[in-house]
Structures are given as C-alpha cells and as structure tokens.
Design a protein that fits this description.
This protein is 16% helix and 30% strand. The chain is α+β, with helices and mostly antiparallel strands. It has a single domain, classed as Sandwich (Immunoglobulin-like). Strand 7 and strand 8 form a beta hairpin. It is elongated.
C-alpha cells in the first residue's frame, strides 16, 4: 500500500479510539521523519524544504522470490535530492523535483509535469533485510530493493538444551 503523507491537523476529542490514535501516532512519526529529510535535502538544493508545490511520482511495488522492489518514476530528480529510509514496517521515500524554469521569466502555455517536494510511504509486509537494502537511480527511475528473508513465523525452531 503506497501513501502520500498529507496529514490533517489533530483536533482534541477527534481521536478517542485507541486504534485510530496509534495509526495517527505512526503517521505523525512518518510525517516528522519526512520533514527532517526535507530539511536535509534543503542543504543540497536551498529552498527545497519550503517548496510549496507537491508532486506525486508514481510507483510500483514488486515482490519476487528473493526481494521486494519499489520502483518509482523520478525523471529530473538527481540522487542527491532523494532520501530513502525504512522505519518499522514502512519504506519512506522523500525528495524534491526542481522546476528548471523557476528562475527564468518564462511562462507555461501547457503544464502537465509536476515539480516540488514529495513524500511517499509504502507499507511493507513479510520478512526482509533492511540492512542490505539498495537504492539506485538510473534513467529516471529509483529502484529500492529489499532482500527477502526466510519466513520464520509458524515454523518449528529447535532450541538445544545445555548443561549448566
């Protein structure tokens, strides 16, 4: 499941249900992480954290026998303006796509491409090795590969008994 991170302001009394509160807390933590990453990107592209336009790069989540791959279209976004993190069971991709005409006196007659900052969250299921994950940008695509781990739940694990 892929999500864009646009969070409404929290109003007192609105989140009385414990499950909703936990969901909000998880989403709020992701939003905080996204803001931190945007500030980090701001060092690469001054003003990135304050871009007002949002874009939503499309993505695919592909599961194979050996990995879970997330492929996102990011044409025009250099690797230095992308951040990828795994937090709990969620992959977070944050970036900024600069408008190449933002500093000129040009005007658009047709504007179909989007520019600005983005944060995409993908809920991950299954067992994967985040420590061995790779993120590569090539030909306008970001590919994040998370190697799969053998599923251990539900299996029998024998624990040897030692003498004291």
């Amino acid at each position: 499941m892929a999500l864009n991170l646009h969070l409404p302001a929290r109003t007192s009394g609105l989140y009385d249900d414990e499950v909703t509160d936990l969901f909000y807390q998880g989403a709020a933590e992701l939003a905080d992480e996204a803001r931190k990453l945007l500030l980090e990107i701001d060092h690469e592209l001054p003003g990135a954290a304050s871009l007002t336009a949002d874009c939503r790069p499309p993505l695919d989540v592909i599961e194979t026998a050996t990995s879970v791959d997330i492929v996102m279209d990011v044409p025009g976004v250099p690797a230095g303006l992308l951040r990828v993190v795994v937090r709990r069971s969620t992959l977070l991709v944050v970036g900024a796509k600069p408008n190449p005409l933002s500093h000129t006196k040009s005007r658009f007659h047709v504007a179909e491409r989007s520019y600005g900052r983005f944060a995409r969250a993908v809920r991950l299921t299954g067992a994967f090795d985040a420590a061995r994950a790779r993120a590569v940008v090539d030909a306008g695509q970001l590919r994040v590969s998370l190697p799969a781990l053998d599923e251990r739940r539900g299996g029998v694990l024998s624990i040897p008994v030692e003498r004291a």
